Amino acid sequence: MTQTEAAAIPVRPGPPIGPAVQPCAAIEKKIAQVTEDLNQAEADIKDAPPKYKPVFQHVIDRDKAELASLRNQLAQCEVANLPDLVPIGYTTQFDHARQVVGVSIIVANNGGGDCTQPFTVAVGITTPAAEYQENFEESFFLQPGDRITTGYMNVGLAYNVDYILDVLVDADYTVQEANKFNNTLHQVLRFRTP
Asked: pLDDT, tens digit, for every residue of 51-98?
């Protein structure tokens, strides 16, 4: 391999080195503290003299309300820090001499967290003559905002007819994502005679 060929190979960053940052750790710590306070207040109210029971009940009610709020914040924090894999388009490569078109899918991480797990991109193309299906196993480290392009799926090329493209990203549901309802792409393609 020449130096020019090596320079043409895209370099993908790997996962960061060092301890993992836990973006929701402060909320989790606060939940643990409030839960401990609540458990103590619930234990204390049992043995408290009647005149102090309202004070302990006030503490219990306050802690329960704070816990509900903190759990909601934690859920929002966790979702905000998950990846969100979305098929955002496609690219094509034509071989007019062989009557073949290659279709590649562009996948973006639109979420707030890194995607560190492999995932499958299932691609189906229906033409008037045939149906094509292929799965692409992707194992890139995708930070928020990163995009990747799958390999090309080659199908027979016909002009001025409809090709139905259907894509499902994370077809095996292995990646925990902020949104699973945007993992599909359905599009009609039409290639004009050159």
From this structure: 988 988 998 999 999 989 889 888 787 778 899 999 999 999 999 999
Tokens read off for 49 = 């003299």
- Where does 9-52 have alpha helices with state H? 25-47
Q: Is residue 3 part of a domain?
A: no
Are 75 and 110 in the same domain? no
Return the amino acid letter for 23. P
CATH code at 110?
2.60.40.10
pTM for the whole thing? 0.70
> Do the beta carbons of residue 127 and residue 156 sit within 8 Å?
yes
Q: Which residues contact 150 (CB under 8 A, 6 or more apart)?
A: 104, 105, 107, 121, 123, 136, 138
Q: Which residue has the tokens 């458990």?
A: 39
Instruction: Count structural domains, the chain.
Output: 2
80 bridge partner residues? none
Strands, E, within 48-144: which ranges?
Answer: 85-95, 100-109, 119-126, 131-138
Give dist(CA 177, CA 83) in Å, integer. Answer: 5
Is-contact 140 155, C-beta < 8 A?
no
- β-pair partners for 109: 85
- Of residues 82, 81, 77, 75, the one with CA closest to residue 170: 82
